[in-house]
């Protein structure tokens, strides 16, 4: 195999009567021990402990994950799906398609993720329709050719260093600068903010990946430049559009600007997740009648021009509600993660074991990596309790007022636990709302296993 090849290998695995087994391997001389370990790890981690009975949500069971194989010096992109089989337990067999690359070229999995997911989805669909050996062999060989052809057509060899472009725009005075400073808790700088002129760029690092924040000035001549400059909009991974929720006198102007951005994106076949942040919705005004009316008016106006945009999400934010900023920012970052689905899957498994009504997994800065909630009311309750517990823990820990890596809040029969955990070199926080105080011991009994399960997921979160 050429040393410069980015695609090191492909393994197609099925969980059959003998357990996870490699059924198709390229190149054929790939070490058999490696084949077995790749099959076992990809299927067991992505499947978890769930049994798929009677075709339960058959079409919905599809997960991507990027997993490390440090013993082999490899990194893998795996896709987990189900194959219908009436003779199998649950009338389905678990399967994975795994692409392998060397650790030093792992960034190509992230950089080419949209293309790789597209060709893998197409291959999986063919295998699901007919999974006889001759048919899946043909489909997988075509997958390899498609990827190799794509890699040959790349303008230049991949030069490592994962970067993601987060674009923040909106009218002048919509609060873009204060939003970004608030996310990073740099509140002392907010008072001296001047209107952004042109483009401000800043970089933050999360799990080894660089998030480059592009903040664009909202004055009219800068807005005109945004709409005509391909450089500004191309390469965007997530677009944040901020609207002043307390000043609707310029709403139509904001709508026109947003519409022009959408027109440019559609005209250039750019598909990007969009977050509309209805900003300056301060906590003391949030439930006032006029404020709610303003929020609904903004939502309605934006929905009218985004009915065909599937990747759009609305948030209500304020610099006086740090959690609202983190929720909006975290959601955008999570959209970048190839492991967001399996992180949610692992939280779902843990919730079942410890009888949790809701779970949040946060990084050290409080960004939400993944969550699980049983219903909307529990979600609302956790949105209130999580930021308070997180703040209490960090402040008390700093003052040496608590010795354990945990804070517990009790309310009637329920308890909310914030537990600090270390996953490899990363400090994370698990927040669990439990239906009973006795479930704390159940959480303790399952914590080490959970940390082990999410270790590879967190390492490759971005």
Total count of strands: 16
Report the helical percentage: 40-55%
Which homologous superfamily in CATH is the superfamily of the largest domain?
P-loop containing nucleotide triphosphate hydrolases
Overall mean pLDDT: 82
Low-confidence parts: 155-160, 187-198
CATH topology of the largest domain: Rossmann fold
- Sketch the major β-sheet: 6 strands, mixed
The neighbouring-strand order within the major sheet is 7-8-6-9-10-11
Distance between the termini: 28 Å
Tally of individual domains: 3
CATH architectural group of the largest domain: 3-Layer(aba) Sandwich
Q: How large is the radius of gyration?
A: 24 Å
Number of helices: 13
Q: Tell me, briefly, the overall form.
A: globular
Describe this structure in words.
The protein is an alpha+beta fold. It has 3 domains: 9-152; 163-334, P-loop containing nucleotide triphosphate hydrolases (Rossmann fold, 3-Layer(aba) Sandwich), CATH 3.40.50.300; 340-459, Beta-Lactamase (2-Layer Sandwich), CATH 3.30.450. Helices cover 40% and strands 27% of the residues. The protein contains 13 helices and 16 strands. It has helices at residues 32-47, 107-111, 113-129, 133-152, 176-183, 220-228, 230-233, 251-267, 289-305, 322-334, 340-354, 376-398, 439-459, and strands at residues 9-16, 19-26, 63-69, 74-84, 92-102, 163-170, 199-206, 209-216, 238-244, 274-279, 312-316, 356-363, 368-373, 406-411, 414-423, 426-434. The strands form 3 sheets. It has a 6-stranded mixed sheet with strand order 7-8-6-9-10-11, with helices on both faces. Strands 2-1-5-4-3 form a 5-stranded antiparallel sheet. Strands 13-12-16-15-14 form a 5-stranded antiparallel sheet, with helices on both faces. Helix 3 runs antiparallel to helix 4 (133-152), helix 6 (220-228) packs parallel to helix 8 (251-267) and helix 11 (340-354) packs antiparallel against helix 13. The two termini are 28 Å apart. Mean pLDDT is 82; it is low at 155-160 and 187-198.
């Amino acid at each position: 195999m050429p040393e410069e090849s980015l695609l090191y290998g492909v393994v197609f695995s099925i969980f059959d009567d003998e357990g996870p087994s490699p059924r198709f391997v390229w190149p054929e001389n790939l070490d058999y021990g490696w084949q077995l370990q790749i099959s076992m790890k990809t299927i067991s981690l992505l499947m978890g402990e769930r049994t798929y009975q009677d075709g339960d949500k058959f079409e919905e069971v599809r997960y991507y994950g990027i997993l490390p194989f440090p013993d082999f010096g490899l990194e893998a992109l795996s896709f987990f799906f189900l194959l219908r089989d009436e003779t199998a337990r649950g009338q389905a067999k678990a399967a994975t398609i795994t692409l392998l690359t060397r650790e030093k070229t792992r960034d190509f999995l992230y950089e080419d993720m949209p293309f790789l997911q597209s060709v893998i989805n197409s291959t999986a669909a063919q295998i699901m329709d007919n999974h006889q050996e001759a048919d899946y062999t043909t489909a997988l060989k075509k997958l390899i050719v498609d990827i190799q052809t794509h890699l040959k057509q790349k303008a230049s060899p991949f030069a490592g260093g994962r970067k993601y472009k987060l674009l923040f725009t909106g009218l002048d005075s919509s609060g873009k600068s204060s939003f970004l400073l608030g996310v990073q808790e740099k509140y002392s700088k907010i008072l001296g903010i001047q209107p952004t002129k042109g483009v401000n760029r800043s970089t933050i690092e999360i799990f080894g990946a660089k998030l480059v924040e592009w903040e664009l000035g909202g004055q009219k001549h800068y807005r005109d430049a945004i709409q005509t400059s391909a450089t500004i909009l191309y390469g965007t991974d997530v677009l944040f559009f901020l609207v002043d929720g307390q000043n609707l006198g310029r709403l139509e102007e904001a709508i026109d600007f947003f519409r022009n951005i959408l027109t440019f994106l559609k005209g250039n076949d750019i598909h990007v997740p969009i977050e509309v942040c209805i900003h300056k919705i301060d906590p003391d005004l949030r439930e006032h009648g006029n404020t709610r009316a303003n929020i609904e008016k903004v939502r309605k106006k934006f929905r009218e021009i985004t009915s065909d945009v599937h990747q759009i999400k609305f948030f209500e934010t304020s610099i006086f509600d740090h959690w609202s900023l983190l929720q909006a920012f975290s959601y955008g970052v999570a959209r970048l993660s190839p492991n967001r689905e399996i992180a949610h899957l692992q939280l779902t498994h843990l919730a079942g074991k410890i009888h949790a009504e809701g779970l949040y997994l946060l990084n050290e800065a409080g960004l939400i990596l993944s969550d699980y909630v049983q219903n909307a009311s529990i979600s609302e309750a956790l949105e209130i309790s999580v930021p308070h517990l997180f703040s209490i823990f960090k402040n008390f820990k700093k003052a040496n007022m608590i010795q354990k890596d945990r804070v517990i809040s009790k309310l009637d029969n329920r308890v909310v636990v914030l537990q600090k955990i270390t996953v490899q070199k990363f400090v994370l926080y698990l927040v669990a709302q439990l239906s009973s105080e006795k479930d704390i011991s159940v959480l303790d009994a399952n914590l080490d296993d959970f940390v082990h399960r999410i270790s590879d997921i967190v390492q490759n979160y971005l």
